[in-house]
Design brief:
Elements (H helix, E strand, L loop, with lengths): L12 H14 L11 H8 L3 H14 L2 E4 L3 E4 L4 H25 L2 H20 L2 H18 L3 H12 L2 H6 L4 H19 L3 H32 L1
Antiparallel strand pairs: 1-2
Helix pairs in contact: 1-3, 4-6, 4-7, 4-10, 5-6, 5-9, 9-10
């Protein structure tokens, strides 16, 4: 990790720390499987260890961090089977939330998703991957919220947290990134048409495509490490 200094407001400090640390985990600044060094993180984030430890507990509850005996906090490292299992679940959850959202979405919710979609397209044009990912994730969360099922929403948030870092890296190939953008176009069109079956289908396919890209990246990384 670099020594770059990041200033954090005093209010709700551990929530602010969790947000910054979450970004570091998702964007790969802290690599999967790496131990979270409290001293280095405290210096980088300019906070004491108390709010940092609270933030780490929050991220552990989300599934981004593992708390291991005698090792402390470690960035979650999923096996290929873990990834396959998790994508299998999240595809079903997103498909269901999309189907319900198409039936229940309000005009204001639809307008908000369309606005986020246009912002996301602009981020894609700039090749601003962090902004693109943030807006992309917001769109998926808004679709899930439009389903108006709190149990589904809570389950989705819990499962999706495990995949955030992998979903971020899946857009680093330009052709696959363009395909993901096209799928988001189809999502908005299906929502606008209140096409429940169509939105379920495109969301499930979108998640299957993400799964395939992630598994391909994992295998390529493992092969490179073996050759090194």
């Amino acid at each position: 990790m670099t020594a770059e200094i990041i200033s954090i407001p005093r209010a709700a400090l551990h929530h602010q720390v969790a947000e910054r640390l979450r970004d570091m985990l998702v964007q790969g600044t802290v690599a999967p499987g790496a131990k979270l060094n409290e001293r280095e993180l405290s210096e980088r984030l300019q906070v004491s260890r108390t709010p940092l430890r609270e933030a780490i507990k929050m991220l552990a509850a989300e599934g981004l961090v593992e708390l291991l005996p005698n090792r402390g906090a470690v960035a979650v490292l999923l096996s290929e089977q873990d990834v396959l299992n998790t994508f299998e679940v999240i595809a079903g959850l997103e498909g269901q939330s999309g189907e319900l959202a198409a039936q229940r979405i309000t005009p204001d919710q639809l307008s908000e998703i369309k606005a986020l979609h246009f912002e996301m397209l602009a981020a894609h044009t700039r090749r601003d991957l962090p902004a693109y990912y943030r807006l992309n994730a917001q769109i998926h969360r808004h679709i899930n919220a439009a389903a108006a099922n709190p149990v589904l929403q809570a389950t989705y948030n819990q499962v999706n947290a495990r995949l955030q870092a992998l979903r971020f890296r899946s857009n680093q190939d330009d052709a696959k990134w363009k395909r993901a953008v096209k799928e988001h176009d189809q999502m908005v069109q299906a929502l606008d048409a209140r096409d429940a079956a169509g939105l379920r289908a495109v969301l499930v396919q979108h998640l299957h495509n993400k799964r395939d890209v992630v598994v391909e990246l994992m295998r390529s990384s493992e092969l490179a490490m073996k050759k090194a």
